[in-house]
Amino acid sequence: MVQDLRYSLRTLRKNHGFILTVICTLALGIGANTAIFSLISGVLLRPLPFVDSDRLVQLNEVDLQNGIRAVSYPDLEAWRRQSSSFDGMIAYQNVSKDLQIADNPERIATLRAEPGLFRVLGVQAMIGRTFRDDDQPDVVVLSAGLWNRHFNSDPSCVGRKITLDGQPYTVIGVMPERFHFPYRGSFTDRFLSVELWIPWAVPLQWAHDPNYRVDFVVARLKSAIPLDVARRELSMIAGSGSF
Which residues, including other chains, have CB under 8 Å from residue 168's CB and lie 6 or more apart? Predict the structure, then answer.
C-alpha cells in the first residue's frame, strides 16, 4: 500500500492538470454533499418550530377541471361550523408593505391573518403578546430579525408606533428567533421570510359569495383524527369538487 501511495504521488507531481481536476472534483463533491445535508437538515430532520407540528395541515380545494385552487370563503365558514376533525382553521394572505422608519424606508414581506393564527400554530411571543380576538387591524407582531435590525433588540419596542404604507400601527409583540410562518426550512429562502404579522378581519360579505377566495388556510387536526378522515369530511361538507 505504501508503494502504491508513493507511485500515485509521483504520478500526480508529473501531471499538474490532473491534480487540479482531482482537487476541483473533491471540492464540488464535498460542497454538494454539504448543501444537500443542510437542506435535508433544515426541511426534514429538524422539527418545525410549532407545537405538534405533525398535526398542522394546509387546506386547498380541488376543481375537477382546473386543479388545486384557493378555498372559497363560504366553504371555509361551512367547514368551521360543521367539521369535527379540527381544532382550528385560519385564513391568511401574504402582502408586501413599505416600512417607514427614520430615513430608510424598506419593502418587507408581511402577512395578514385571522386573529387565531398563533393559537392554531401553538406558539407564543418572545416579548409582548400575539393577537387577541378583539384586536383592531392596526397592531403588528414583529419577527426577531426585524426587531434586531430596526429596533436594536430593544424590549421596550412593544407599544411603539411604526408606519406601514403611510398608516400607523402599534407593535404588540416579537416572535422567537426560530419562528417563521409561512415556514421556510431552506437557508436559501431566508430573504423571502415574512417579517411582520397583522390581524385580518375578513369582510362580512365574503361569507355569502363563493367568488371570494382566501389565498391560504392553515388548520390543526385533532390528535386522534387521521388525515384521510378529515379530507373526506371536508369534501362532503363542501358538497362540490373534492378536497
Answer: 138, 161, 162
Residues of the chain with pLDDT under 70: 5, 7-9, 11-49, 102-103, 183-192, 239-243
**What is the structure's pLDDT at 48?**
66
Give me the sign of the Cα torsion angle 99, 101, 103, 104. Answer: negative
CA distance 101 to 147: 12
Is the pTM higher than 0.85? The answer reads no
Gap between the Cα atoms of 151 and 193, Å rounded:
18
**E strand or H helix at 229, and its extent?**
helix 227-238
Q: Which is nearest to 98 in space by CA: 151, 167, 197, 191? A: 167
Per-residue pLDDT, 42: 43
pLDDT (tens digit per residue) in 148-163: 988 899 999 999 999 9
State residue 138's pLDDT score. Answer: 95
DSSP string covering 111-122, please? EEE-TTHHHHHT
Closest among 187, 194, 211, 213 to 202, alpha carbons compared: 213
pLDDT at residue 62 in the model: 81
With H, G, I as helix, E, B as strand and everything else as coil, classify residue 82.
helix
Q: Which of 192, 196, 200, 149 is nearest to 175 (CA)?
A: 196
Around Cβ 214, how many Cβ atoms within 10 Å? 20
Question: Are the CB atoms for 126 and 174 separated by under 8 Å?
Answer: yes
